[in-house]
Amino acid sequence: MSVTTSPESPAAGPADGKASTAPVSLRRILVALDASDHADRATEEAGRLARSAGGSITGIHAYAARLHDARFRQMEGGLPERYLKEDEMEYQREVHDDLISRGLNIITDSYHDVAEGIAKRIDLPYHRLSPEGKNYRKIVEAAETGEHDVIALGALGLGAVPGSLIGTVCERVVRRSPIDCLVIKDPAKVIGDGPLVVGLDGSDRSYGALKTAFDIARRVDAPVHAVAVYDPYYHYVAFNRIAAVLSDEAGEVFRFKEQEKLHEELIDDGLAKIYESHLEVAKKIAEADGMELHARLLDGKPFRAIADYVAKVGASLLLLGKTGIHTDERLDIGGNTENLLRNAACHLWLGQVTFTPEIEAVAEETTAWSDEALALLNRAPEFARDMARKAVLRHAAEQGHTFITKDMVEEVAAKMMPGRGAAGAGGGELVPLTWSAAGEALLAGLNDPAMAGNIRLRAEKAARRAKSAEVGPEHVRPFLDLAATVGGTAEAAEEEAPLAWEAAALARLARVPEPMRQATKARIEGVARRRGLHQVDMTVVEEGLEAAREAMAKAMRKGGHPMGEGDED
Question: Class for domain 25-170, per CATH?
Answer without folding.
Answer: alpha beta
